[in-house]
Specification:
It contains 14 helices and 19 strands. It is of the alpha+beta class. The strands form five sheets. The protein has a six-stranded mixed beta sheet, with helices on both faces. Helix 2 crosses helix 7, helix 5 packs across helix 8 and helix 5 crosses helix 9. It is elongated, with a radius of gyration of 30 Å.
Length: 439
């Protein structure tokens, strides 16, 4: 028979947790996480508990001892950690949350857990929604918090704190109360203790109506995220696809692309997103813009990308050996007797490409190959004396290229692998290889 208790029933019907999952439960010692741990234990799940001591309050060590006694009584393994390093700068709440989530990921790895269960409730959703509305938000903020993201799941988002208290009361369990939950300097506490009670007094039932709104927003946001993810191809977005997307989906696609570049969300302002859309759609503002987190948004050919702002090192090595003729990729064959050296671009450089008549400016070669502006100054060039002989990956001078079958100099340029580069980045393609855009 289904459980008559709302909390236990929510876990029984939750699509977020499967019987075979090994679950790490984040336990602070407060009512919500205590109830979640007990309910999952009663349901027979394979559990490990995790507790992080931020060391911000005199009673934090006592809270750790309380959680340890609870886990021992339930027979649940516990992983604990206490903060040792200084708190990061900025918002203390945001920093504490970041440290806790980093610990939970480490703990899940140590426990072999595939899911990390968090005990946020319907009240937390409503409080988050109101906070975001006060600050100004879109659909993602209106939903409060997602039920699942990566390995994190929140199976109690449809359970109210009143249900949590009833669940613990039936079992005679006394949980801890976090002193921070009564400090109205924090925006969430002010919403919980002042704003929502006032709204509920003026409009009885508004708290549950706000939860329903957040639920509908969550469904809409899920659809937006699916469409945005589908628009991304190989960590880039075709600009033609971006132009066809509705603006909320286009913005979500850009934010997803930004997150995949290795930075932590949120960090993009409305100004950044508007500029990115304008550039991608061919509006004024050039072909790129610097972003927070050391990233740069740029359009290369027909694709929008987000890359490290500092261009990876273009330091390179010139390899020259005698050759009687071969077809090794990534190399060229130049006439014997040339004094070859590596260099970089300077004004006025030209060469006579073997694949086209006349001479071409180096600048035009870069433009035709869609090499981003920020890559051009560091592009390694091969000179014969003062004459440009080879632009690796783009063109070789036909006057200096050896004839097929005659003894020649086998010339290769390899970039020295540097921070931010992959082995693929370090390869320089042969001038005959197809090029849609430049790495």
């Amino acid at each position: 028979m289904p459980s008559p208790e709302p909390l236990a029933a929510a876990l029984e019907t939750s699509p977020l947790l499967a019987p075979a999952d090994r679950i790490l439960v984040a336990v602070s010692g407060g009512p919500d996480s205590t109830a979640l741990l007990i309910a999952l234990r009663e349901a027979g799940h394979d559990l490990t508990a995790a507790h992080y001591d931020h060391a911000l309050q005199p009673t934090s060590a006592a809270a750790t001892e309380h959680v340890a006694r609870l886990c021992a009584r339930l027979g649940v393994p516990l992983i604990c950690e206490r903060r040792r390093e200084p708190m990061p700068r900025g918002s203390m709440q945001a920093a504490a949350r970041e440290l806790r989530y980093e610990f939970l990921v480490r703990a899940a790895r140590a426990a072999g857990a595939s899911k990390i269960a968090l005990a946020h409730t319907a009240d937390d959703v409503v409080e988050g929604t109101v906070l975001h509305l006060l600050r100004g938000c879109g659909i993602a903020g209106l939903r409060g918090m997602p039920a699942a993201r990566d390995v994190f799941v929140r199976p109690l988002l449809d359970v109210w704190r009143a249900d949590v208290r009833a669940f613990l009361a039936v079992r005679g369990v006394v949980a801890l109360e976090d002193p921070a939950n009564s400090d109205e300097r924090f925006g969430r506490v002010a919403v919980r203790r002042t704003i929502l009670p006032a709204l509920e007094a003026a409009r009885p039932g508004i708290t549950r109506r706000l939860r329903a709104v957040a639920s509908r927003a969550a469904a809409l946001q899920e659809a937006v995220e699916l469409s945005a993810t589908a628009a991304i191809e190989d960590d880039a977005i075709p600009t033609a696809s971006l132009a066809r997307l509705p603006e909320p989906v286009a913005v979500e696609a850009l934010e997803t692309l930004y997150a995949r570049s290795g930075v932590k969300r949120p960090a993009l302002s409305r100004r950044h997103l508007a500029a990115m859309l304008r550039i991608a759609r061919g509006g004024p503002g050039g072909r790129g813009i610097d972003l927070p987190g050391g990233r740069r948004f740029r359009v290369v050919g027909s694709r929008a990308q987000i890359v490290p702002r500092v261009t990876p090192s273009m330091d390179a090595r010139l390899l020259v050996k005698d050759c009687s003729g071969c077809d090794a990729p990534g190399s060229v064959h130049l006439r014997r007797g040339l004094d070859l050296r590596l260099g970089h671009r300077r004004p006025g450089l030209r060469l006579r490409p073997s694949a086209s008549p006349g001479t071409r400016k180096l600048q035009d070669l870069f433009v035709d190959a869609k090499v981003p502006r920020e890559d051009r100054d560091g592009w390694p060039l091969v000179f014969a004396g003062d004459r440009l002989a080879w632009v690796p990956g783009l063109a070789v001078d036909r006057d200096l290229e050896s004839r097929a079958g005659e003894p020649s100099l086998h010339v290769t340029v390899t970039r020295i692998l540097a921070a931010g580069m992959t082995p693929k980045d370090a390869m320089l393609e042969s001038p005959d290889s197809p090029r849609g855009e430049s790495s």
